[in-house]
Design a protein that fits this description.
7-stranded antiparallel β-sheet, alpha+beta, 9 helices
Length: about 475
Amino acid sequence: MRHVRRRVVRRVTRLAAVGGLLLGGAMVAQAAMASETPTPATSARTTGSAGTAGDTSAALVARLGTARTAGSWIGADGRPVVAVTGPEAAAQVRRAGAVAKVVDHSMDELKSATATLRSAPRVAGTAWSVDYRANRVVVLADRTVSAGDWSRMTQVATDIGGFVHMERTKGTFTTRLNGAQPILSTGGRCSAGFNVTDGQRDFILTAGHCGPSGSVWFANGRGERQLGQTVDSAFPGSDFSLVRYDSGRAGDGADIVAIGGGKGVLITGAADPAVGQRVFRSGSTSGLHDGQVTGLDATVNYPEGTVTGLIQTDVCAEPGDSGGPLFSDGVALGVTSGGNGDCTTGGTTFFQPVTKALTALNVRLLVAARTPGDTGTTSPAPDSTASAAQSAMTPSAASPGSPAPVTGTTQGRTLLARLTDTRNIGPGLLVIAGSLIALVATRYIRAERDRKAYQRYYSATWG
């Protein structure tokens, strides 16, 4: 029985050694081929930059001018709608294939109203934006605004005109400090937004209120894995910042936004959103949530200061989601600034537009190249920047974007996939060497055992 067990052990050992030789050979061969042919991850890692939009509703507004138009949005049927102030402009819109809606107040009037609100004494806890669909300016005040301040702001709105609408809202307008992966510093917790580059080094684009220049960021609460340092920041006024990676590179999966469960969405470009567009937000606290863009060029009076030019949505967010990405159909739209409410009761959330941040910081988005098999988009995006025209569909039909596994960790990868990684030529050679040693050692042990058994047998018979 003992001899049978030894034979089984020897066979298993030999099989393991031979298997190691085969695996090591496969690792070396795959790595060698990868050195000649760019890997999919490498070929997909392109750089986004500014581009031109098609003949969309935004282009129509620009062509007709702010005195004849009052914004645009995506209708319930997915068609672009342009607000115009007269029949001549309406006819031009219809000839371009969009829907025209004649309104009373031009964009010049609406912008003049918001300028008057900005020039009034600042009241923390208030916000306003232009509601294109209702052709009015909506002023929101949270529960911290006193009765006296509310009365004074109401008087300012009355003096401007009846198209300024005042609303009380629940909760408190705050920044969402304390994804999208979590990033942590002594100042609190935020969420990573998008990876960007200046052509030489890579950075994380996140919210400006997350921390001033010089803030050091870590990937965990114990401070064991330092990610990088904030090198540029704008807050208040705007709300964006750059965190420079200590390694200089974002690494694998730089073009993917995490949405939880080891899954992510490929980012293929950047654009400005449209009112009525369905959008998605990911954050390290509350995960993935969706909603609609309800306003543009919004102003929020946070306790820390006033931020202008924001995207207003009905997507929920919670503390810790700050800096997290806003996107739709794989197109980057903004990073989370702040708002009120939570993901149980709902609320309003504001976002810093990505396009404005990229221009101000002189960086470009790291994006994925399109392939014919990509899903989640209505048409192939340009190799640099996608247009808001990608939203010209039924708003409810929009999707986060093309799915992809979150890289940078071993989560979701099989053992075989990790062992046969194309970068593993060194480990492959080690596996081969170890397997050869195991084979030689097995042979030596077997010979030594046979020699001792032979010696014992003849010692016993010869006395």
